[in-house]
Amino acid sequence: MTTIRNHVTLIGSIASDNRIMQFENGNKIVRFDVTTEKQYRANNGKIREGREWHKAFAWGNIAGFIEQFGEKGKKVAIHGRLITRSYFNPEGVKRTITEVEVKHILGL
After folding, report:
1. Sequential DSSP letters for the chain
2. Which BP terms from GO are recorded (predicted)?
3. Quick check: is 77 in a domain?
């Protein structure tokens, strides 16, 4: 029987300032956005350029690396897995988001 694996690789640019959270036990998490380029056909038939926005986060040593070197506008390749989570916003509305948990990052 084959095993289905949860892997994602994106090549794009860091599109936000890093949001860093340090926990009491010393662990660190960094959250950031990555944009990737896409092409699509508009209603008039012409090919257009666009961007997709992706939320990403990393823990530990990778978080420290991104904190130090992952500035907004930096071209990167990230590899990890998709994580879906839910939370309640300040108005009490439940929101669900999907993010990339980054396991590897490469500056381009």
Report:
1. -PPP---EEEEEEE-S--EEEE-TTS-EEEEEEEEEEEEEE-TTS-EEEEEEEEEEEEEHHHHHHHHHH--TT-EEEEEEEEEEEEEE-TTS-EEEEEEEEEEEEEE-
2. DNA replication
3. yes
Query: Is 43 part of any domain?
Result: yes
Q: Would residue 48 count as lying in a domain?
A: yes
pLDDT for 68-108, tens place per residue? Answer: 998 999 999 999 999 999 999 999 999 999 999 999 999 99
The CATH number of the domain holding residue 90 is: 2.40.50.140
What is the span of the domain harbouring residue 58? 8-107
The number of folded domains in the chain is 1
pTM for this model (two decimals) = 0.84
Residue 57 banded pLDDT, cuts 50, 70, 90: very high
Alpha carbons 21 and 3: distance in angstroms, whole number: 34
